[in-house]
Amino acid sequence: MKKSDVLDLIKYHYENKEIEFRNQTVDIARDFDKSGDSQLAQYIMGLISQTNRFIPQAESENSNLIPVKLNLGSLPLPTMIMNDLKGIINAINHHIGINKFLFIGSPGTGKTESAKHVARLLNRELLLVDFSHLIDSKLGQTAKNIIMVFNEINQLPFLNNYVILFDEIDTIALDRINQNDIREMGRVTSTFLKSLDNLNPEAIIIATTNLYDNLDKALVRRFDATIDFDRYSDDDKIEVAEVILNDFLKQFKNATKDSRLFKKILKTAKKIPNPGDLRNLIRTSLAFSDPSEPSDYLKRFLRAMHHGKTLSIDKLSQLGFTVREIEILTGISKSSVSRELNGAKDE
C-alpha cells in the first residue's frame, strides 16, 4: 500500500466522496489480499459493509450489478429439479471449474427463484446484471457495455462471495443467424461468448431464458450444465400450489384451510398454471376475499381457474363437486342445491 492511497482515502472522506472512498478502500483491501494478509483485507471490507459482505460499486449509478434480496421462504419444486439444484451445489463445492449454469423453461416455472435458492445455499450474495444499461441503440456500444460488465465481474474483490445472475439472457444473446441485423447481433453475441471464455474461474454464473430454442447454440455450449424447468407434472403443480397456499394462509387467520377442496378446484382446470402464475392467483384470491367469509377465497380461486366465469350448480356437479362443496363454492344452501339438481334430473 502506498502513502498516496492513505492520503487519497482521507481526502475522499473529508470531501464526502462516498463512491471514491469506497473504491479506494477496495483497492487497499485488494493490495493486502495480494500480499498475503487476507485477514486484514476481509476486516477492512467488513468495516464498510453493513452485512460484512461488501458489494463493490453496487451502489454506484454506473454499476451494472444490482444486489438481489434473497427470500427466506421455502422453494417448492419437483424432486427432479430440486435434485439438479443440489447437483449444482455439489459441483461448485468440488472446485473443479464447473461454474456456468443455464436455467431454461417457461415463465413462472421458478428459474429466478431457484437462482436465489442456490445463492442462499452457497451462503453467497446474488448480483443481478442490469440489462437496461447494456442494450444501446448505437452501433457497437452494446458490445462495449458487455465487455464493461464482465470486467466489473472479474474485478470484484472476494469474487467467491457472489453468484452472478443473467436473467433473461436471450435479451442479448439470441441466435446470430436468425437476426435481422446480423452484423450487429453477431458482434454482440460473439463479444458475450469471448467474455464468458475469459471469465474469472472463481465467478459463478447463472443465466435464465424463456427462449431456449432461439439461443445461439455456441452460447449454450459455453455453459457447464443446462437445467430444464419445464418438467412439472399436474401432480407436481398441485403439490406446489398446496405449499404456496399454506404459506399464504399464515397471513390470513380468518381463512379456512380445506386442502381437499382446494386440490379438487385445481384439477378442474383444463390446464393447471405454472407455479409463478399459481402464486399470483392464490395470493389475489386470498387478498380479495371477504374476511367474514372463511371460504370466500375458494370461490374466487375457482373463478380464477375458469377464466373469471361463475360456474352453475349443474356444471359444478358435472365436475364432481359434492352438494356440501357446491354450498361452499356458491353460498347456496345444501337443500337448495339438492332441489335444483334433483329438478334437473327430473327434467
From TrEMBL:
Protein name (database record): ATPase family protein associated with various cellular activities (AAA)
Q: Which domain of life is it from?
A: Bacteria
Q: Which InterPro entries match?
A: 26S_Proteasome_ATPase, AAA+_ATPase, ATPase_AAA_core, P-loop_NTPase
State the similarity comment.
Answer: Belongs to the AAA ATPase family.
The record, for PANTHER family, names:
26S PROTEASOME REGULATORY SUBUNIT
Any one GO MF term held by the record is: ATP hydrolysis activity
SUPFAM superfamilies according to UniProt = P-loop containing nucleoside triphosphate hydrolases (SSF52540)
- The AAA+ ATPase domain covers 97-233
List the top taxonomic levels of the source.
Bacteria, Pseudomonadati, Pseudomonadota, Gammaproteobacteria, Pasteurellales
Q: What does the UniProt keyword field contain?
A: ATP-binding, Nucleotide-binding
